[in-house]
Each structure stands twice: as structure tokens, then as C-alpha cells.
Design a protein that fits this description.
The structure holds two protein chains of two kinds. Chain A is built from one helix and three strands; from the N terminus they run ββαβ. By secondary structure, chain A is mostly beta strands. In chain B, strands 1-2 form a two-stranded parallel sheet. A two-stranded antiparallel sheet of chain B has the order 3-4. The chains are: A mainly beta, B mainly alpha.
Chain lengths: 34, 199
């Protein structure tokens, strides 16, 4: 999966590559107030 | 576990829901539709399992839910190091070409920037441009609805209104030649200068 850089709920930068250093990642896509 | 909020209104729009949900895992906000453009999905909720090497091992586009025991079982197998199994067959009706993808992402960014500056009509216009390019993209469509008709989303979601609104808009798109009678299988690239026959 392509690397992506997003911002978390606290305004901190989040990168997929950083998360993967801790192991596999489960991504759940949603939109809160459909 | 990471939740990705597809909120074209930006972090400010996503944070209240995150607080209410009380999730113990991080939530990141994809306000420009980067992940949806890359993965090609057009609606939520979705689940994507990525191994330590960055390879997608399983994905479910549409209907993924932690309230679904089958979905939970897949995630638990995956996190235990086991084979999650085959991904459900959920092929999008069409895939945008790289140029269209970039243009949609640009329009989404423009809309988000306009919204942040309080330029509501400019934001809606940019998002409508994105939707014309990607008419099956429900995340874009619902973003427009949420801004134009906030009363239909708070305090409760009016699902019946959404269904009626989608039907009405789809009829308009068919009349305009954007979509065929069975949906929107007409590739965007073939609309220019000629009408493609809906399959």
C-alpha cells in the first residue's frame, strides 16, 4: 500500500510507515455523521 | 487499529465524532480523499488489513463493521498472524485514470480550503466538480449533502431523505449523460466528445 501522511485527531502527523514499525495495521474507513 | 475519517470538512468536523465514539485507537483525517483515490473505493465503511511489509492482505469495501462477527473474526485472525482469508468481491463500478484521480483530489482540496475560509458556495462548487468526475463516489456526494442540508444529518440522520435525494440526483445525472440507466459505468475519459453506451 502506498505511503500516506495524514493528521490525527490531536493534530499530530501520522504516517503509515511509522505505524507499520509496530506490526500489522488494521485500517477502518468511515465517515462519522452520515 | 487505525480509524481513517473521510471528512472533507477537515479535522474540526471529525473531532466531535471521535470524542463521542470514545475510541482507544488513533483516528486520522483524510480530508482530501487521498486514501480513497489510492484504493479506489467510493463509499464507506471499509476495512483494509496491511501487513508489516506494507502489503494489503485483505480488504472489504462497503459494509465492514466491528458489529459484524465475521469481520471481527477476520481481523482477529489477521492480528494473530493467521491467514485472514479471501477478500470479499467488491469491485468498484469503474476506476478513474491517474489524471482524473489527481483532478478529483485537487477539487477536494480546493473545496476543503474554501470551506475553511467560510466560502461555502465555492466549496460546494469544487466538490460538485469532483462528483461530476467520480459520480459513484458517495463520500463526496454525502459531503455536499452535509453542507447543503445539515438538518438531514443532525440531530439524527434522515436515511429516507438520503435515498430520495440520491434517486433524484441520479436521474439528473442520467439525463445529463454522466451516468447510464444502470448506474455510472461510463468511464469519465470517454464522455468527452462522444457518448459511450452504458454496459
Amino acid at each position: 500500500m502506498r505511503e500516506c501522511t495524514l493528521t490525527d485527531q490531536d493534530g499530530q502527523t501520522w504516517q503509515l510507515a511509522d505505524a507499520l514499525t509496530a506490526g500489522a495495521v488494521v485500517l477502518v474507513f468511515y465517515r462519522g455523521d452520515w | 487499529m487505525v480509524a481513517i475519517a473521510l471528512e472533507h470538512g477537515g479535522r474540526a468536523a471529525a473531532v466531535p465524532f471521535v470524542a463521542t465514539a470514545g475510541a482507544t485507537f488513533p483516528t486520522v483525517v483524510d480530508e482530501h480523499g487521498v486514501t480513497s483515490a489510492h484504493l479506489g473505493f467510493k463509499a464507506v465503511p471499509n476495512g483494509v488489513l496491511v501487513d508489516e511489509g506494507g502489503v494489503i492482505q485483505w480488504s472489504k469495501y462497503g459494509g465492514f463493521s466491528i458489529e459484524n462477527p465475521e469481520d471481527v473474526a477476520v481481523v482477529e485472525r489477521f492480528l494473530a498472524g493467521e491467514d485472514p482469508g479471501l477478500s470479499p468481491d467488491a469491485t468498484p463500478p469503474y476506476q478513474l485514470g491517474p489524471t482524473e484521480r489527481e483532478l478529483v483530489a485537487t477539487k477536494l482540496q480546493l473545496g476543503q480550503a474554501s470551506a475553511q475560509r467560510g466560502r461555502r458556495e465555492e466549496a460546494i462548487a469544487a466538490w460538485r466538480d469532483a462528483l461530476r468526475l467520480d459520480p459513484e463516489n458517495l463520500t463526496i456526494r454525502k459531503q455536499i449533502w452535509a453542507v447543503e442540508h445539515p438538518e438531514k444529518f443532525h440531530p439524527t440522520i434522515d436515511w429516507e431523505w438520503q435515498r430520495a435525494q440520491f434517486t433524484a440526483e441520479r436521474e439528473q445525472e442520467i439525463a445529463a449523460g454522466i451516468c447510464g440507466p444502470d448506474g455510472c459505468p461510463i468511464p469519465p475519459a470517454s464522455r468527452d466528445g462522444e457518448r459511450a453506451t452504458a454496459s
